[in-house]
Design brief:
It is a single chain. The chain is mainly alpha-helical and about 90 residues long. It has 2 domains: about 50 residues, no CATH class; about 40 residues. A two-stranded antiparallel sheet has the order 1-2.
């Protein structure tokens, strides 16, 4: 998995535990990239043919935001959970 979800997860592990714990997790996972991950903008630069998710936002109705998530991968539930978490956190 290349992307912000994994990167943020590693940041959380480093903050809550230690960078050493994060390093041990990456080493134990034996991923091909050795734990080198990047955000979508950089992925697009490095891999022009990469299949990245997209969001289409509609703000035409006052006080309402409609978001359409498209991806070839089954992360819609994750996206919905992140959005719900942001709504709860920011009370918006």
């Amino acid at each position: 998995m290349q992307g912000i979800v994994f990167t943020e997860f590693l940041d959380m592990v480093e903050d809550r535990f230690t960078p050493e714990v994060a390093d041990r997790m990456i080493t134990a996972a034996a991923v091909p990239s050795d734990g080198a991950y990047t955000i979508h903008v950089e992925v697009r630069k490095l891999y022009p043919d990469a299949e990245l998710p997209t969001f289409t936002c509609d703000t035409s109705t006052p006080g309402r935001l409609t978001m359409l998530y498209r991806s070839s991968r089954p992360f819609a539930d994750l996206a919905e959970g992140l959005i719900a978490g942001c709504i709860a956190h920011f009370c918006e």
